[in-house]
Design goal:
alpha+beta; Rossmann fold; Tumour Suppressor Smad4; 14 helices
Length: about 450
Amino acid sequence: FFFAVFYVRRTRRRLWHCGDVTFHCTSQGLCEQWIHVINEQLSLFTNRPKSLLVYINPYGGRRRGEHVYQQKVAPLLRRACISADVIVTKRANHARDHLTAEADLDKYDGVVCVGGDGMFSEILHGLIIRTQTDHGVDRDRADSELVPCSLRVGIIPAGSTDCICFTTVGTSDAVTSALHIIVGNSQPMDVCSVHHDNSFLRYSVSLLGYGFYGDVLGDSEKKRWLGPARYDLAGVKTFLNHKHYEGTISFLPAENKGTPRDKLRCRSGSCRHCLHSSQEMKPHKKKKFRGLDTSDGSHNWSVIHGKFIAINAASMSCACPRSPKGLSPSAHLADGTTDLILVRKCSHLDFFRHLLRHTNKNDQFDHSFVEVHRVREFHFQPRVRDLASAGDSGEDETSCFAATCTRRATRHHGTSHGRWTCDGEILPHTAIHVSVHGQLIRLFARGIEEEEEQQLGS
């Protein structure tokens, strides 16, 4: 008589594998007794999920979402006695719409997406919108206190970009992510809300990028037929164009949260900024943005006007295999802040040096044309309002025509409007207001572990 015990085995490069040990017993009764005691002990781990709602994007990445789930993830879930209701999405925003209006969330312990960062964004929006609607929160108000989501989110990487998974787990391996879900790990994460005037636009957990990264994404959307290679081609083209944009950035600095250049990495179980944030981020009266006038006492806001090649807000390091440190190596997952990176107008060579440092160990902020701030809130206003804003404000046709002519005329001088990209989606407006909501969601993850821990195994 024998029985098998399956366990998680950690290896190098933050990969997890499923191992097993077989025990032999002298009698059937002794075998059943051991199994009963082990199952009793396992039932004490209440963080482990028993039922999951799984969304699979069959079109993302190399169209391997269904294969990855069926071959690598589903067997592990069955082995762990976790039930899963699977929905294969049929269209864009299918998962978001289902979560928002149809899903019976009381039946589940978590929601899992099989896909890339775009699929995760759908799940994120669906859960947050559903939670705010259930609690009567007006998401169109930029100063609304959002209610944290009760369900955890799991990510099985199967997309063109898996930045969120890589940044929160340390690898883009489907088996590793599945095992994090099975053992019930929990990692809080900040979420940024993006508004234009009094209208909600989107939520963001990784990168808000204006200028260079917005232009790269906008150009890559025209080349979707190239697959993942479209990002490289669009990146080269955008770099050669070397546009800059003029505007005003206003931000509320985060106090007592360190700096983006302090080299204190966000690591599993040892990040003091994130560990203490639960106590520090109790409801507090917000210092509301009042434009450029600081004479009313809102002097805590900093205001910077200039010409920028890029403005980036990184709520996590945004690490990926090509950029192991990410855009902001010391950004934290759950400290209630985002790192605001301003890249001013500079030469082609200087900007290339800045981009190159994302791929090596040098400090990418150590340039005279780059400055970085850790902030709780920020507002961006372009030099000339975009046409959509002019139309919304009730201006006559002559004004709209003048605004259009101004945009065409200034485009040759590098001061036309750029575009914001929000976690891989282009925003419809340039003038935006961004607020950070601390620990609004929780992932089936534990943050990136130190390599020394990985080498010890378990």
